[in-house]
Amino acid sequence: MKIALLSDIHANLQALEACLEHARAHGARQFALLGDLVGYGADPGPVLDRVMQLVAEGTPCVRGNHDAAAVAPPAVAENLGEQSAQWTHPRLNAQQLAFLSGLPLTARMGMDALLVHASADGPERWHYVADGNAAERSMAAATRMDPAIRYVFSGHVHEQALYFLTPTAKLMRFSPQPGVPVPVPPHRQWLAIVGSCGQPRDGDTRAMYALFDPDAATITFQRVPYDHMAAAAAVRAGGLPAFFADRLEKGR
Amino acid sequence: MKLLTPGTEIDGFVVHECIHAGGMAHIYRVGYANAARNPGFPLAMKIPRMTAGDGAENIVSFEVELTILPTLSGHHVPRFVAAGDLMRLPYLVMEYVEGRTLQHWLEEHPRTLTPEGALQDTADIARIGSAMALAAHSIHQQNVCHLDLKPANVLLREGGSVVLLDFGLSCHAHYPDLLAEEMRKAVGSPTWIAPEQVVGVRGDLRSDIFAIGVMLYEMATGELPFGAPATQGGMRQRLWMTPAPPRQHRPDLPEWLQEVILRCLEPEAAQRYPSAAHLAFGLAVHFKRWIKAAGMHYQPSPLPARQIEQVPIVMVAVPHDDVTDATLYSLREAAARSLGIRPGARLACVTVISPSASSTSDSARSETMLHRTHLARLKQWAAGLDLSRHSASYHVLEAGDVAQALVRYAEGNRVGMMILGAATHGLQLQRFIDTVPIRVARDAPCTVILVKQQLPFEQLHHSATAAAS
Predict the structure, then answer these.
(1) Boundaries of each Calcineurin-like phosphoesterase domain copy (chain A) (predicted)?
(2) Residue of B nearest to A132 (CA)
(3) Mapping DSSP to helix (H, G, I), strand (E, B) and coil, where does residue B133 land?
(4) Whether this model's pTM surpasses 0.80
(5) Domain parsing of chain A, residue ranges
(6) What is the pLDDT of residues A46-75, one digit of tens each?
(7) For the structural domain made of B99-306, what CATH number should be given?
(8) Architecture per CATH, B311-461
(9) In this predicted complex, what is the ipTM?
């Protein structure tokens, strides 16, 4: 049974739908959502409706920093992220806001997987897991939580990466090739950054997610083309900063 | 891990004798307990030595092999069969390949400084060297670098090809490198390791070319180019050291062979052959020229497959009924083009007639008469071809199933390329039924060229209708 791991959807409806469809076509029967459902993108309401439907069907979902900001946006926006939180908040209904504020910071999936948006080491502080040392701290915190945890699945950082624990207790970073199932045997510990579904920033406009197959012990990082021009047009039409639209058009 | 006694059963495999007891693992001949599961080739089981006293390194290297071997295919690796759970019962079952290692070969062929052996030695080195390079190229094409090539890991098959063994230190470009943590520490065998591996760079295919160079050097001179350093410092010499030219040890070696070997051993990877295929080609080309220049005839050819490709049998299926002149013309053009670029190619013109066409009572339709008529048609068709540099033959086949007859002829005569009409007038039907060209293209053992009817006839027809309207 394959599980599709999606993170950083960022209110990008086109990207979300393309990834869900791609995942189902590739055998995903279960989903997990790793936070930052909203922010930056033009369709927070429709995205949350889809997400709430998935969660009602049993999909685990954790909270991201943008989800927290959309619930309680600052009075004065100091950066583009906060500006988008101010834009998002009034566009959500009470039910959607209640859903966002009820999201947990971490969730378990099966016996051996932990879901956390940023780092398991202080999930509410939103540390970026961008290198081996940060990954080591997140993995160590997960192990303190429960030594049975073999997999930590995260987002927050918008590039796909796989960190693995070596026998000398160091975490090594690996840049996966999209579409290749990578063996992740459970006798080691693995930390996967699944990349951003709705806000790619590595110069490639395609959406990202990952397919985890616990039975075969493999993870396949995916890149999915979607109608990014339509998503960018929606951002402009919605009156969000044009920079967010440019970003989707360039994947940067 | 103590030695298993023959007859022990592991996960459905019966263990036979131990064929190798190395520092890292034991290797046994095994078979399926249930003989019906036997895959049709002999099997070997590798079991890592993992008692409390053994280091962590050999279990990681076993894990690496367990991960990489199943991804590899082709004639140059043992086929992967099964693996046990690494935590519970680690083992790896693969094809047992008959042959002897290059290590044995080196022991049986001690280098001597007498000049008589030079021709034979050079021939051996060129042959085994290109076989090793082609084997390395095959795994490189599958995104794997071996990184531990040495005579014990090179198996020479009876037919002359090479199988690479032991992928415990290998690196797959699409998988996390479990040995990468050994950064700044050399992972490999000191005698054959490339300079970049000494400083922890893993995954450059040119590291394998370096290791092949070390083996060629030993085959040529009986000496190791860098000795067998026992210390990290000794290995670091490799970063700058150029070995003594092979001809210092063996003055009768041809100069080109020395150049090939030294190019493999360049300390800087960018100065080596860019791929193992280039190395194989370099060895083969130089060797052929050298033999020619020396006025010697050497048999067999070092690369028979390539030679076969250069002189194929080209078969043309010439239809006899329901065929337009334009189709026959186009077939002839295609045959002329195919022969034109292959000076040694041989032409076989084939036509298939129905068995019911002949009659035992009507003499005009007797079998011999029919054959004669069709042979004459074939020769007439071929008359427009320049066959001065090609041999040609004509064949009339009798069969009810045209496609099957053509495919069988191609199989039986090792045809390298078949040319036939694409039967475009039946295109609409081809979606629903298997037409002759479709079946031939699918079933033929060789390249098939489907020829479409060309100008000028179609053009003439169009201009004629245009003029009429």
Answers:
(1) 1-214
(2) B181
(3) helix
(4) no
(5) 2-250
(6) 999 999 999 999 999 999 999 999 999 999
(7) 1.10.510.10
(8) 3-Layer(aba) Sandwich (3.40)
(9) 0.84
Residues of chain A with pLDDT under 50: none
Q: Are A98 and A69 in contact (CB under 8 A)?
A: no
Q: Are A191 and A154 in contact (CB under 8 A)?
A: yes
Sheet containing A161-165: give its strands across: A106-109, A113-116, A151-154, A190-193, A161-165, A171-174
Residues of B in contact with A177 (CB under 8 A): 173-174
Those residues of chain B that have pLDDT short of 50 are 52-53, 298-308, 469
- Establish if A175 touches chain B: CB-CB under 8 angstroms: no
Judge whether A217 and A181 are in contact, CB under 8 Å.
no
SS3 B302: coil
d(C-alpha B316, C-alpha B377), whole Å: 13
Among B67, B173, B177, whose Cβ lies nearest the Cβ of A183? Answer: B67
Is there a contact between B261 and B244 (Cβ–Cβ < 8 Å)?
no
| CA distance linking residue B161 with residue B251, whole number of Å | 29
CA dist B286 and A24 (Å) reads 55
A166, A167, A182 member nearest B174 (Cβ):
A182
Of all residues in chain B, the one with the smallest CA distance to A164 is B176
Q: What is the location of CATH 1.10.510.10 in chain B?
A: 99-306
Closest residue, chain B, to A182 (C-alpha): B175
Q: CB-hemisphere CA count at 13 Å for B85?
A: 8
Fold of B1-97: Phosphorylase Kinase; domain 1 (3.30.200)
* Residue bearing tokens 């199988």: B163
Parallel/antiparallel/unpaired status of strands A161-165 and A106-109? unpaired
- The active-site residue, picked from B148, B166, B204, B208, is B148
Whether B176 and A182 lie within 8 Å, measured CB to CB:
yes
Q: Is B11 tagged catalytic?
A: no
Which chain A residues contact residue B63 at CB under 8 A? 185
